[in-house]
Structure formats: C-alpha cells, structure tokens
Amino acid sequence: ALILLLLIGFLIFTNIILRALPFDQISGTLTITLGLIAWMSWFAASYSVRTRSHLRFTLVRNKLSMRANYALYVMEWFLWLVVVGVILRFGIAETMSQMSKNATIVGLNWPRWVLNLSIPVTAAAMVLRILQQSFLVTQEYRNGEDIKPEISISE
C-alpha cells in the first residue's frame, strides 16, 4: 500500500510541475490515480482484517465473556463474507465487462480492466484473510486463549 501511495503522490506531483511548466500533462493520470487508490484501499482493508484492526467496539467487547466475543467474531466473519462476496461477484462481472468491451484508459490506450481488476483480486484476498482469521481465532478460543480485541492497532 505504501508503494501505491508513493506512486500516486509521484503522479500528482509530476502533473503539478508539468502544469506549471509549458509541457503537456501525463495522459490518463486521473483515471490511473483513482485506480491506484482503489488498489491501495482494498489492500489496506485486507490488512486490517488480517491484523484484527478494522472498525470495532473494543471497549464494549473487552467487557464481554470469551463466549460472547467468539459469537461476535462468528457474526462478524459471516457479515464480512456476505459483503465481500457480493463485492467479489460484481467486481468479477464488471472486470469481465470491461475486458469484453476492450475499454481503454483515455489518452493512454491501456486496458481499463487492469484497474478494475483491483476489486476482484483484493476482494478474494479479503476472503482468504477472513477465513484465515476465523481459523486462527477459533483455534485460540478452543485453546482457552484470550480472544478479546486489543485496543492498540499497531503490531
């Protein structure tokens, strides 16, 4: 995600410099930047699932029993899988549509589906992360380990 953020910053900075000088701007920068933001945000979401640092109510959950926390995790995984499953299904359909239309990025003549591929690829990565977390937390729960979420998101 950091590499994508640096690339986005480079593209924007380069276009600002080119705009100030008497040169043409880089074609398709807006479309590429938006596509890179989609890749970066989905990778970040996948990372947050892996590290259990996504949006949650930690202070409330720390007061619950292990059994209640595990039930909330199961509900959370189910909801994640439903939402990400819908996103994955429609992301694949949209990418296939872009491929069949031979749509290109304006000004660059690059295939547009490359940017749209961010949705199905990273949604699939999220499904894997959700399944991974469900396995790991279930093992911890069965072993009697503490599964309450940590307040800190830094690991």
Question: What is the fold's blueprint, element by element?
Answer:
Elements: H1 2-20, H2 29-50, H3 58-61, H4 66-101, H5 113-116, H6 118-142
Helix pairs in contact: 1-2, 2-6, 4-6
Question: Could you explain the architecture of this structure?
Answer:
The chain contains six helices and no strands. The longest helix has 36 residues, at 66-101. The protein has helices at residues 2-20, 29-50, 58-61, 66-101, 113-116, 118-142. The radius of gyration is 20 Å and the shape is elongated. The mean pLDDT is 85. By secondary structure, it is mainly α. α1 runs antiparallel to α2, α2 (29-50) packs parallel to α6 and α4 (66-101) packs antiparallel against α6 (118-142).
Supply the key terms.
elongated, 71% helix, 6 helices, mainly alpha, 155 residues
Q: Decide which structural class fits the backbone.
A: mainly alpha
Number of helical segments with 4 or more residues: 6
Order of helices and strands: HHHHHH
Shape: elongated
First-last Cα distance? 16 Å
The strand count comes to 0
Mean pLDDT: 85
Tell me the radius of gyration: 20 Å
Strand content: under 5%
Q: Largest sheet, described in full?
A: none
Proportion of residues in helical segments: over 70%
Low-confidence stretches: none
